Every structure is written in structure tokens, then in C-alpha cells.
């Protein structure tokens, strides 16, 4: 691979390019990098052709450029050390643009940058320069654009040398504390200033909203307090003050900015609007976020907002019906009115034809769902949960080709589920939990091949187990709890067989027959223990960024774990659970249950299961909660269960277990309640001492493993002398026959 170089004049025998003075821009190629002794890093050495490009004007080594190369970045980190760094800057005398996002610069002095007096654009995002910037002063008199986000900076860099030239400054996503330095008021030509996602506090300086050329200001996600000062920067196009601790009334001067395109004031401690008449003229406004600002009534618009795309008025105290102007906004694509007190009929939104995302959850909506909602044919996300809606689910929703989130949980909907889900359905999240739906499950749901979360729990659905759902390759969460589902679950083999499932909840139904062994064997996602970090921690369907900088993620599910029923607003990916409780399952627990190493919760309680508790459960070392109560299990509690070091809740009550309770580790933490209703058990924590007397276990054999042996009892000591000899003789006679 060679450097991707424009205006190549000739190439040497080594493959290195010789450039003419007309060369303008260079983008990187991994041949710049020579592997160091460490496998996870690549170092730029001073003997590469990069250091002979004396007419280089622009260099971009950002890690994004490497993803498609033969080397996999950023797992193979690009490092620039001091010697080669300084040599490069000495030679690059006309360098105007330097973009090093993601390059390891922890061993490179920032003071050396001052050798490059021609720099205009400098980007050092995610480069680890925080320590060097504490001591090194950047003095770049021509610098206009400086990007230093994601560096864990704890103090502001000294930029006094560039105050007269700087037009764009990004210090977002760092750890800056204290107030905004007064020296920043000298940035008289600044047009873009981003200090978001830091720990800044105090009041917002008046000069900050008075800079004459300022167009974009982002102070969101800090800890600013006090009032918003009066705004005189009429050049402002984008103003983000959301997610702070600002209070008082929102000043009217905010709504007189005629060039405004983006305004985010969400999640502060405002008292609402000083005057509910806003925006006499906002012809360019595209995004308006006023969530959690204390609104008690809808703002009144004196002028038109012809191109408004996103509007968020959620988490306020809006009540009654919505204003006429809202339904006349044909440009709206995103509308969130969740967590208010609205009673608006749902059919009124049918006139917002361009809506992509509509969220009116957690309100007081009543009445039927009208099919006119489908007039908004571009709907991708429809969230109407936690209301009082009645009637049937409009069948047309199943045919909206772009709809991928449909959340109707916690309403009073009745009738049957739509039976016309189309072959091209994009549906990924479907939640109708806690309604009054009845009838059979529609087989057309198997057409929704993108489906990841399906929650049909707490209804009156009456059908056999929907085995055809196992053909959905991406199905991760299946909740069918608390319905009227019945019959055995057949062991049917298909291509996928729930291979992606991590939550399988069919509790509180009328299923019977044996636990389906084939399903357990094919729960592939439950077999591998994976550590998740950052954005990967939760299962959920994410939809477009909104509320300024927050993404919308949905993933509600109600589960019973550790003897507690809880609603998870976000589902941890490592929350792997099986709940078959409150059914009529019979027979034994399949031994293959021990292969589900990622399992955290296991609930087989209140069934008719029998036989021995399989020793293989001892392999479930991530298990935190296990409930096998109210069954007919016999025999001893396997000592292998003491391997479950994370087990917090154990319930084996109301069975026919016998013998001494295993001791040690987590078993030392369980109370009597874990073992009640097993008259043959003894030992701690029960008051009944075992006294070295063996209890008589049942004779029913286990199907697999060591329990398959078949001889389910042991000789009982009934006396001394010839009585003992007689007992031993019987045992020897048995072994000879077998």
C-alpha cells in the first residue's frame, strides 16, 4: 500500500512518492507505520517519506481513515513520539491543516507545535494530550480552528496567542471545572464555541452571549446555575444550554433571534416562560427543545415557523388538548410530548404527514386509536404507551413499511392483534404489554425478520406456543407472560431456534408437558459470557438523536428476578434469564441447562417438575437468582451448587428434598425460607440437625449424567452386629446382579 498522494510526479524504486510543489493534501496509508515490539501499537518513525514532504499543506491521520485498511484501527493504535514529531514539524514549514484524531500523542510535546506557525486548522480529538497541555503553551498566531474534545482536560489551555485569529473552538467532552475563563471574551472573531459535556459551573458570563460574530454556542451538560443573561449576539444560529441547573424564567430575548436554527433549553430548573408568546419571527428555526422547563401551557406562536423539523415539549405539565398551530406544521418530523397531562384524541396527529417519530407516552390520552394515524405514512417510531387508549389496534399500523418501533403498552386496548404484518416489515420493537388483547397470536409476526424485542405479556391472548417465532434470527427478548397460552411446547428443529434469545419469559400461562430440551440446547446467546462496555451495555432500539445531545432508546420489559417483580427501562445485555414459572410443566430439568453459562436468572417455580435437581446447574457460575420452589423435586441438593459464587437468591421451598443442606460460600447466606416445606432436609440454617444420620432419598432416577445410574437409595444402618452385615450383604447381592 502506498500513500494516497495527489499530483504525484514520479515514484522511486522503493515505492515512495516524490511530490511537486503543487501538492495540496495527503491522507494516510498504513505504510507510514512500522510495527513496534508491542502488537497493539504502530509508531511513526522519522525515516518514512512523510518527513521529506516539505511542501505538505494538509495531513489527516484520523483513526477513522484506517477502518477499511489492512490494519485494524484503533485496536492497533497509531503513536507519534517526540523525536519524530518535532522533526516532522520542523520540515513541514507550510503546513496549514493537521488532523490527528485518535492518534496517541501522550509522548509528544505540544510546545513543538509552535514551530509550525502556518497552522490554521488543528484537530487533536481523543489524543491524550491532557498532561502536555497543562505545561505547554500553544502560540499559533494564524490558528483559526482548534478541536480538543475527548481528552479528559481538567483545565483550560492557554490560547492567548491565538485570541485574535481563533474562529472555532471545541473543548467538549472533557473534565473542565470551574467557570469559563474571562480571557475567552477576547475571542472577538469566534463563530463556534463548544464547551459541552464538562463540569463547568457558576453563571453564564454576559459577554458569552454578546460576542459579535458568534453563530454556534454549546454549553449543554454542565452545571451552570443562575439566570440566562440577556442575549445580544444576533448572529446566533445554534444555542444549546440544556442539561444544566439554570433557573428563573426563560428570557424573551431568546425568542427574538431571527437567525436561530437550533435552540435547546431542556432539563433545567426554569419556572417556565415569562411570556408564553414566543417567536414573532423564526423563519429558519428547525429544532426546538423545551423539555423539562416547567411549561404549564403550550407556547403561543405569533409568527410562523415554516421549516420546524423537531419539537420536544416532553416532561412538562401541559394539559388538555393541543393547539391548532401544532397540527398545521407539515414540516414536523419529530414530536415528543411525553410525560404531560394531555387528553388529545390520537387522530389529530394524522395531519402531520411527515412525522417520523411521535412520542405521546405517559399522558392521559383516551378514546379509540383511529386508523387515520396511518396517514402519517412516514412513521418510523410510534410510542403511545402509558395512557388510557381503548379500542382495537388499527391493522394499518402493521403495513407501515418504515415503522420499526411500536410501543402501545399499558393502555386498555382490546380485540385481537393485527394479522397482516407485511413481508417487508422493519419492525424491531413491538410492545403491547398490559392491555386487554385476546384471541390467537398472528402468524404474520414471523414476517418481521428484524424483530428484536417482542413483549406481549399481561393480556388475554389464547393460543398454543408460537413455535414459528423461532425463525426470527434477531429476536433477543421474548415476553409472553400472564396470558392464556396452553399446551405442550414441542421440540421442533428450525434454522435459528431462538439462537439470539437472552430473555425468555413465558411464565403464568397454562403450558404443560416437558421443558423443551431442544430450545435450551439452541439458546446460543445464553451460552457465551461476554463483557460489555459503554454504549454496548444495554439491549434497546435506538432512534435518532434528539433533546439536544441525548439519544432516544427504548427497551421496556417487566421481569421477576430475585423474588422481585420489576420493570426495566433499560435491559442490560448481561441480564440473561429464563422464566417458566406458574405453568404446568412436568418431568425433569434437562441436564443441558448447565450449558447456559451466561444465565443470571432461572425461575422454574410453581410447576409439576420432578426428579433430581441436575448437578449441571453448578456450571452456571454467573447465576444470581434461582427459584425451583413449589415443584416435586426429590433427592439431595447437589453440592455442586456451592460453586455458584454470585447466587444471591435461592428458593427450593415446597419440594421433597432430603439430606444435609450443602455448606459454605453463598449457602451460608440463605435463610430458612429457602428450604421450607422439605421435611427431609437438615443442617444449617434449619433447626433440624442431621446427627450424621442419612436421610432416605427417593428412588426416581435422573435422565442424564451421573444421575442416570438408576439406584436411587443407599443402605440404611438399622442396627449393629449381624444387622449391619445383613445390610451389606444385600448391597453386594444387588451389584452382582447388575
Automatic annotation (TrEMBL):
| Record's keyword annotation contains Transmembrane helix | yes
What are the transmembrane regions? 717-734
Q: Which SUPFAM superfamilies match?
A: L domain-like, RNI-like
Q: Where is this region: Disordered?
A: 1-23
Topology with respect to the bilayer: Single-pass type I membrane protein
Q: Name one GO cellular component term.
A: plasma membrane
Which keywords does UniProt give here?
Cell membrane, Glycoprotein, Leucine-rich repeat, Membrane, Receptor, Repeat, Signal, Transmembrane, Transmembrane helix
Cellular localization per UniProt = Cell membrane
Please verify whether the record's keywords include ATP-binding: no
Q: Which family does it belong to?
A: Belongs to the RLP family.
- Listed name of the protein: Leucine-rich repeat-containing N-terminal plant-type domain-containing protein
Q: What is the lineage of its organism?
A: Eukaryota, Viridiplantae, Streptophyta, Embryophyta, Tracheophyta
Amino acid at each position: 500500500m502506498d500513500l494516497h498522494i495527489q499530483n504525484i510526479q514520479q515514484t522511486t524504486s522503493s515505492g515512495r512518492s516524490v511530490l511537486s510543489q503543487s501538492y495540496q493534501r495527503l491522507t494516510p496509508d498504513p505504510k507510514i507505520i512500522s510495527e513496534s515490539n508491542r502488537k497493539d501499537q504502530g509508531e511513526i518513525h522519522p525515516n518514512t517519506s512523510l518527513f521529506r514532504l516539505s511542501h505538505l499543506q494538509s495531513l489527516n491521520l484520523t483513526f477513522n481513515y484506517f477502518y477499511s485498511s489492512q490494519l485494524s484501527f484503533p485496536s492497533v493504535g497509531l503513536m507519534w513520539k517526540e523525536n519524530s514529531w518535532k522533526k516532522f514539524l520542523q520540515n513541514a514549514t507550510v503546513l496549514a491543516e493537521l488532523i490527528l484524531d485518535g492518534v496517541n500523542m501522550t509522548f509528544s510535546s505540544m510546545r513543538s507545535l509552535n514551530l509550525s506557525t502556518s497552522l490554521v486548522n488543528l484537530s487533536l480529538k481523543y489524543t491524550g494530550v491532557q498532561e502536555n497541555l497543562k505545561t505547554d503553551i500553544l502560540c499559533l498566531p494564524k490558528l483559526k480552528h482548534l478541536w480538543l474534545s475527548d481528552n479528559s482536560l481538567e483545565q483550560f489551555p492557554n490560547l492567548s496567542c491565538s485570541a485574535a485569529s481563533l474562529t472555532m473552538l471545541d473543548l467538549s467532552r472533557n473534565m473542565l471545572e470551574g467557570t469559563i475563563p474571562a480571557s475567552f471574551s477576547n475571542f472577538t472573531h469566534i463563530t463556534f464555541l463548544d464547551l459541552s459535556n464538562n463540569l463547568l459551573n457558576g453563571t453564564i458570563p454576559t459577554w458569552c452571549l454578546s460576542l459579535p460574530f458568534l453563530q454556534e454556542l454549546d454549553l449543554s451538560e454542565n452545571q451552570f446555575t443562575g439566570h440566562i443573561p440577556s442575549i445580544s449576539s444576533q448572529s446566533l444560529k445554534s444555542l444549546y444550554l440544556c442539561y444544566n441547573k439554570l433557573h428563573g424564567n426563560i428570557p424573551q430575548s431568546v425568542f427574538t433571534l431571527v437567525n436561530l436554527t437550533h435552540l435547546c433549553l431542556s432539563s433545567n430548573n426554569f419556572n417556565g416562560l415569562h411570556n408564553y408568546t414566543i417567536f414573532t419571527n423564526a423563519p429558519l428555526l428547525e429544532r426546538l427543545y423545551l423539555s423539562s422547563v416547567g411549561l404549564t401551557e403550550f407556547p403561543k406562536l405569533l409568527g410562523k415557523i415554516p421549516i420546524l423539523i423537531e419539537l420536544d415539549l416532553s416532561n412538562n405539565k401541559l394539559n388538555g388538548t393541543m393547539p391548532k398551530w401544532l397540527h398545521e406544521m407539515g414540516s414536523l418530523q419529530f414530536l415528543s410530548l411525553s410525560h404531560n397531562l394531555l387528553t388529545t384524541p390520537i387522530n389529530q396527529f394524522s395531519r402531520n404527514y411527515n412525522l417520523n417519530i411521535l412520542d405521546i407516552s405517559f399522558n392521559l390520552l383516551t378514546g379509540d386509536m383511529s386508523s387515520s394515524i396511518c396517514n402519517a405514512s412516514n412513521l418510523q417510531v410510534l410510542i403511545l404507551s402509558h395512557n388510557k387508549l381503548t379500542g382495537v389496534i388499527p391493522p394499518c399500523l402493521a403495513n407501515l413499511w418504515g415503522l420499526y418501533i411500536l410501543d402501545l403498552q399499558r393502555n386498555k386496548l382490546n380485540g385481537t392483534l393485527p394479522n397482516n404484518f407485511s413481508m417487508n416489515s422493519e419492525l424491531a420493537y413491538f410492545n403491547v404489554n398490559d392491555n386487554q388483547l385476546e384471541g390467537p397470536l398472528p402468524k404474520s409476526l414471523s414476517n418481521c425478520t428484524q424483530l428484536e424485542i417482542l413483549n406481549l405479556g399481561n393480556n388475554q391472548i389464547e393460543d398454543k406456543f408460537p413455535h414459528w417465532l423461532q425463525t426470527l434470527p434477531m429476536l433477543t427478548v421474548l415476553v409472553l407472560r400472564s396470558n392464556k397460552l396452553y399446551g405442550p411446547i414441542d421440540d421442533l428443529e428450525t434454522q435459528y431456534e431462538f439462537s439470539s434469545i437472552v430473555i425468555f419469559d413465558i411464565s403464568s400461562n397454562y403450558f404443560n408437558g416437558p421443558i423443551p430440551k431442544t430450545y435450551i440446547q439452541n439458546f446460543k446467546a445464553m451460552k457465551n459470557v461476554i463483557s460489555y462496555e459503554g454504549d454496548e451495555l444495554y439491549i434497546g432500539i435506538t432512534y435518532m438523536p434528539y433533546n439536544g445531545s441525548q439519544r432516544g432508546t427504548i427497551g421496556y420489559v417487566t421481569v421477576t428476578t430475585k423474588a422481585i417483580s420489576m420493570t426495566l427501562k433499560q435491559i442490560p445485555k448481561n441480564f440473561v434469564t429464563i422464566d417458566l414459572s406458574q405453568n404446568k410443566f412436568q418431568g425433569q430439568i434437562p441436564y443441558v441447562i448447565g450449558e447456559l453459562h451466561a444465565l443470571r436468572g432461572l425461575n422454574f417455580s410453581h410447576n409439576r417438575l420432578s426428579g433430581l435437581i441436575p448437578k449441571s446447574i453448578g456450571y452456571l457460575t454467573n447465576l444470581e437468582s434461582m427459584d425451583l420452589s413449589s415443584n416435586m423435586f426429590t433427592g439431595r441438593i447437589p453440592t455442586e451448587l456451592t460453586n455458584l459464587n454470585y447466587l444471591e437468591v435461592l428458593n427450593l421451598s415446597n419440594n421433597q428434598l432430603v439430606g444435609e443442606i450443602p455448606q459454605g460460600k453463598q449457602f451460608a447466606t440463605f435463610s430458612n425460607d429457602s428450604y421450607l416445606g422439605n421435611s427431609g432436609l437438615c443442617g444449617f440454617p434449619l433447626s433440624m440437625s442431621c446427627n450424621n444420620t442419612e436421610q432416605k432419598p427417593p428412588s426416581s432416577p435422573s435422565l442424564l449424567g451421573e444421575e442416570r445410574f438408576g439406584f436411587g437409595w443407599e443402605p440404611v444402618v438399622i442396627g449393629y452386629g449381624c444387622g449391619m452385615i445383613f445390610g451389606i450383604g444385600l448391597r453386594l447381592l444387588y451389584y452382582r446382579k447388575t
